[in-house]
Amino acid sequence: MSQYPTSFDRDDLLKCARGELFGPGNAQLPEPPMLMVDRVLDISADGGAHGKGHVLAEFDISPDLWFFACHFPGNPIMPGCLGLDGLWQLTGFNLGWRGWTGRGYALGVGEVKLTGMVRPDRKKLTYKIDFTKALQTRRLTMGVADGIVEADGDVIYQVKDMKVALSES
DSSP letter string over 28-43? Predict the structure, then answer.
């Protein structure tokens, strides 16, 4: 059982970005504007579709977000890679939440399907992450998960076999 709560607001996530939540040298989120989540609604080490852990989180969309001005002028769309990064951020956050130590980094993703777009008129992204594997050995700390991103309830991104690790170096 984690020593941390099962939900986090933006202030909590900013503490994580500054290295204040899980401690120095451990899992951190990026600071804005690269922070792609505003709140974690629920997190576990044993929930989700496979009983290996999950994260449910949200990101508020507004027309003044930094990427709409440059991607693309006259046709603003959130880059799909930022939605994928939000999934990776939350997968690493779950590992730190479990109390596992080390700095997080993405290892890859098996499959990505982009079936919709995030335009400035959208209001909210919902991230749904289900772990298929979470392991901590003497040499490796890693989470493997599937994820979905919804924009105002519409599934727009689906990923399989996302991998995030923690490393002491």
Answer: -PPPTTS---SEEEEE
Q: Mind giving me the DSSP string for 66-88? A: GGGGTSSTTS----HHHHHHHHH
Which residues are CB-contacts of 140 (< 8 A; sequence separation ≥ 6)?
165
Instruction: Give the number of other Cβ atoms within 10 Å of residue 52's Cβ.
Output: 19
Nearest-angstrom CA–CA distance, 77 and 84: 14
Catalytically active residues, by annotation: 71
**Distance spanning both ends of the chain, measured CA to CA:** 26
In this structure, whether the domain defined by 10-167 belongs to CATH 1.10.530.10 is answered with no
Domain boundaries, the chain: 10-167
Which regions of the chain does DSSP assign to beta strands (E)?
Answer: 39-44, 54-60, 103-108, 111-114, 124-136, 141-151, 154-167
> What is the full per-residue pLDDT of the chain (169 aa) written as tens digits?
679 999 999 999 999 999 999 999 999 999 999 999 999 999 999 999 999 999 999 999 999 999 999 999 999 999 999 999 999 999 999 999 999 999 999 999 999 999 999 999 999 999 999 999 999 998 899 999 999 999 999 999 999 999 999 998 7
